[in-house]
Structures are given as C-alpha cells and as structure tokens.
Amino acid sequence: MFIYLDESGDLGFDFTKKKTTKNFVITLLLCHTEEARNDFKKAVSRTLKNKLNNKKRKRRVNELKGTNTTLEIKKYFYRNIKNAEWDIYVLSLNKYRVERRLQGKDSKKKLYNFLARFLLEHLPLAEVSRNVELIVDRCKNKKEIRDFNQYLANCLKALLPLNTDFNISHLTSEESMQLQAVDLFSWGIFRKYEFNDKVWYDVYRRKVVFETEYLR
Predict the structure, then answer these.
(1) What does the radius of gyration of the chain's CA atoms come to, in whole angstroms?
(2) 186 and 8 in contact (C-beta within 8 Å)?
(3) DSSP alpha helices (H): ranges in the chain?
(4) What's the confidence (pLDDT) of residue 57?
(5) Taking Cα atoms as reference points, which of 65, 87, 89, 86 lies closest to residue 77?
(6) For residue 87, what are the CA distances in angstroms to 14, 20, 190, 214?
(7) Which DSSP state fits 14?
(8) Is the pLDDT of residue 47 over 90?
(9) What does the pLDDT read at residue 9?
(10) To the nearest whole percent, how much of the chain has pLDDT over 70?
(11) Which residues are CB-neighbours of 42 under 8 A, at least 6 positions away?
(12) Spatial contact of 216 and 99, defined as CB atoms under 8 Å apart
C-alpha cells in the first residue's frame, strides 16, 4: 500500500489577513498496488511532456501544481490514469471552529499531526498484506519530521497486521510525481470548500471514498 499526503490552504488563524484561508484540507492518495503507483508517474510525466514542455515553450516546467495548471491540462492528466486501483481520502478542517488554545505555533503542529492521524485511521490498514509506505510533501524541519513520524508510527502500527511495517518518507514534489498528482486533487477539494467551486472536483469525485468536514 502506497499513501501520498498533501494539504491545501493554511493553518493560520488571523482572519483579518487577506490570505488566511477559511479551510485547511488534507488529502490522501491511496495506491493499492505498485501498478497504480507507476501509472500516476506515467500520467504526470506524459502531461508535463505533452502539455507543458512542448517545443513552443522556452521555460521548462518540472512539476504539476494545482494552483497554476489549467482545467484542460488537469483533465488531460486525469484521462491518462489508466489503472483503477486507487482511492482518495479527504479531511477539510473548518478553521473558524478550532479552539483558541490550539491556534498557537506549537499547538498547530500537534493539530496537524492529529488531523493526519485521524484521516489515516480511515484507511483499510487492517487489510494490508505488505508494508505501508507513507510519502509526505517535505515542508517540515528535522524536529517536526521526527515528531510527526514518531506520533503516527505509535498510533497506527497497532492497526496493522503482524509482520507489516509502516514507513514514512518526506520528499519534495519534484522527487515524487505522485505527490504532484495528489496536489492536483487536493487543490480541487480545497476549491470546493473554500469557494464552492466544484468544476475540477467533479471530474474525479467518484474516486473519493472518504470525505469529512472536521468541526463542521
């Protein structure tokens, strides 16, 4: 089982600032097989090659991003996913309902770890027959990575069958094309909650098997 985690929005709570978002979204892309994982790599690679790095374009694009990829290109990427052995899991946090004591710098890190754990616990972890690989977009410092890894490992290992391991990797999106894929999905889900814009979300909504609005 391969799990790719990305988020959209921010965990800021100063709503007087224009860029502070109302919602914070965590999205998991679950690939049940090696074939599904490789299929996402091919879909992203093909999209970059055929749509963003053609001969007419002077500046090379190294990754797909939800924020600056057109809907047409997103749909092209989606059409190139041939394997069906994958699912999407979603948690959207209503930040207005978060208690003040959880809005401090250190508390926000604990809140993030809790939300990630809450969503991961809804995966079919008890059914795995091989190791679980969690790949996270690398945006934390060394201490935050250590705390995140330790917290999730302690919480989730009890849910796994015996003789299976839970491994966590922190990679940049350029290092993992699957992280670029989940970024596209997460952006669409964020647009749904933040702006009631479902145009891109509706393209892949049938693959969303779990979705919750936390603190609704």
Answers:
(1) 17
(2) yes
(3) 34-47, 71-79, 105-120, 142-156, 177-195, 201-204
(4) 67
(5) 65
(6) 34, 29, 17, 20
(7) -
(8) yes
(9) 95
(10) 98
(11) 80
(12) no
Tokens (6 digits) for 128: 């795995």
Ranges of H-type helices in 80-174: 105-120, 142-156
Residue with tokens 């290992």: 157
**CA-closest candidate to residue 77, choices 37, 36, 49:** 49
Q: Is the model more confident about 140 or about 23?
A: 23
* Residue pLDDT, tens place only, 56-114: 666 788 899 999 899 999 999 999 999 999 999 999 999 999 998 888 888 999 999 99
The span from the CA of 166 to the CA of 216, in Å, is 31
> Rounded to the nearest 5 degrees, what angle is found at the Cα of 179, between the Cα atoms of 85 and 88?
40
The strands making up 132-137's β-sheet, listed across from edge to edge, are 166-171, 132-137, 2-9, 23-31, 86-94, 208-214
CA 189 to chain centre: 10
Per-residue pLDDT reduced to its tens digit, 135-171: 999 888 899 999 999 999 999 988 998 888 899 999 9
Burial 100-113 (b: 16+ CB within 10 A, else e): eeeeeeeebbebbb
Task: Tokens for 31, please give them.
Answer: 């690939």
Distance CA 31, CA 124 (A): 12
